[in-house]
Amino acid sequence: ILGDYAATAAMDTFTASQGDRHPTDLAMLRGARLVSVSETEEGRPWAESRIKQLTGGDKISARFMRQDFFTYTPQFKLLIVGNHKPVLRNVDEAARRRFNIIPFVHKPASPDKRLEEKLKAEYPAILRWMIEGCLDWRENGLLRPESVKEATAAYFDEQDLFGQWIEECCDVGPRLVCKTAELFESWKGFAERNGEHPGSTKAFSANLCKREFIPGRTKASRHFTGICLKKREEWQDAYDR
To answer: Is 43 left (phi over 0), alpha (psi -120 to 50) or beta?
Structure first.
């Protein structure tokens, strides 16, 4: 229906890899309004910085094979289809603004093998439906169904390992205080036992600040107010799971 305004891309363009992808991947998306991607891989993490770059409204640089670089502003909506949800390492507000999980739970008893053919015959009506939806969006904004809100919230909860550590290993309260080194040691063990790299103490402290815990320091050490570790017998279960 969208013709040249629609494009497809490889999943590798949006997931992390050891080497850099050739900028041709991005060059081919110039001018597209809808980019569809399929075949997600279980356990593979998102290329988060690239996704934020492509969806943030800023210009990006790209080039075709053996040609010069050029810049353009991405205009497309990214639609990713798959049975597996890639790993999201940083569950922050920037990620929450960008991701919407749309669950497809209906499985027909007998799939219609002529469905694509039938839909093609309805292209004019589908295009009109799309235009009406666009006008509704411009007038009323994007109203997400409850099923999308719930599926998206569940995805973020699954991916928020840092939040899981706070829930399982820490107590939270305005009068609680704990040394940063002790908190980080607990987080480090929790992350490693869950197959994740704990990162640096600087990144760890930044994550605590994002969650509105208050940093402080004395002559002897640094600490955070609003959080402390649970007693060992309480949080040991979190490590053993």
So the answer is: left
C-beta atoms surrounding 187 within 10 Å: 24
Distances (CA, A) of 76 to 18, 30, 43, 183, 212: 26, 9, 26, 42, 34
Residue 63 in tokens: 């080039």
Q: Which of 21, 160, 9, 143 has the alpha carbon at shortest distance from 81?
A: 9
User: What element of type H or E holds 139?
Assistant: helix 123-140
Q: Compute the distance between CA of residue 103 and CA of residue 148 in angstroms, rounded to an integer.
A: 7
* CATH fold label, 161-240: Arc Repressor Mutant, subunit A (1.10.10)
Closest alpha carbon to 214 in 227, 203, 225? 225
**Tens of pLDDT along 196-231?**
889 999 999 999 999 999 999 998 899 999 999 998
pTM of this prediction? 0.77
Across 90-114, average pLDDT: 90
**Cβ(39)–Cβ(51) below 8 Å:** no
The domain ranges of the chain are 3-158, 161-240
Strands 170-179 and 60-62: unpaired
User: What DSSP designation does 13 have?
Assistant: G
